[in-house]
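Contributing new records

If you add data, match the layout below exactly. Sequence lines come first and carry their own label; structure lines follow with theirs. Keep one chain per record. Anything else will be rejected by the validation script.
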Amino acid sequence: MQVQLPYGRGTIPIDIPDRNLQKVILPKEIIQPDRPEVIIRNALFSPIGTDRLSQIATEYDKVAILVDDYTRPCPTKTLLPPVLEELQHANVRDSNIVIIVANGTHKPPSDEMKREIVGDKVFRNYRVISNDYVNGEFYTVGKSKFGNEIEVLREYVEADIKVILGDIEYHYFAGYGGTRKSILPGISSSRTIHNNHKLMFEENAKAGILKENPVHQEMNEAMHLAGCDFALNVVLNSRQRIVGAWAGNPDLVLDAGAKLVDEMYKINVDQKADIVISAASGHPHDLDLYQAYKALHTVLPVTKENGVIILVAECKNGHGNEIYYEWMKKYKTAKEVEEKLKQSFVMGAHKTYYHLKAIENHEVIFVSSMDKTEVEETFRFKHAKDLDDALKKAFDIAGKDATIFAVPQGTTTLLKTKVK
């Protein structure tokens, strides 16, 4: 059977023998119910738990709007105009509005990238800034129940009206993306982000878990300490089309979005496979290995012990993080990294921990545009020149009768199994 796998902005095919292929694991595909602008306006006109934004804001308010960065598929250019129209209805001056790219610890976007994120017209008419988690100016807004100080970007804290835009999907240790993640890590300081991410070693810091998840709990505290008057978040299908939008109270928005994400992307599998082929959902999820790793993480529960994973991700920007790269060169085991991070957390190094933990129990074959030497020597994957080569290598390891799962949307799918 031929299976099309997302790769960058396109797809690449793989031919999997029918006798080996057990299942192509796909999300429940919901078709976009209406034009994106109609879905968004309906959400803005009927917010949950709050008044409309045009009724909350007043003429002389200073407004801060948080938007996702270039590593997220959020359709910010579609979300912003109707939100700005709501503020215009409240007679808020354009000069009193700042749009903040909540890039967390990711590289701050260039002006050209900001223009791409928000759209040319918005970029020309509004002030657009981004987070610098090392050198930015942060205010302490309080302490979390975990004893950590929450330091948030000054421009957001000083605003009279605070708005969060984004999309909701799974996150491998925060439970889900969306709403509160725009604050922490989106516009928080290095110290606040590091302290929060230390909690990733806790048992319930997993994809699809909110209530008992300490990473999420502190992120949510940070959002309430910093303030959020209005959220607009969307859920996308596998074609990155908007299939749900909610506006208003950020807690209610996240609950509603997470419910649809589960309906579409949580999949129970009644067995494990010898070989799992996981694609990192295409652009922008496979821009670099730092992002694409998530597609490896999500398939671990359905891969047999010592099984083989074929990771498919273009990674046109290479590995994507220097600390991740340096720690992969320096450390040999996940336990070493865990011990170092518990002493002093370093962003980027946490990806090394997950990466090493995965390859300690599984052989990983990598199909990407990355350099073969770097792939094999630094990241310790087996390099494959194409999918046919990858599948041949996988059969050499697992045997000609190996069972196979194919997971085209590896980054965004949450796989569960009761099989040990």
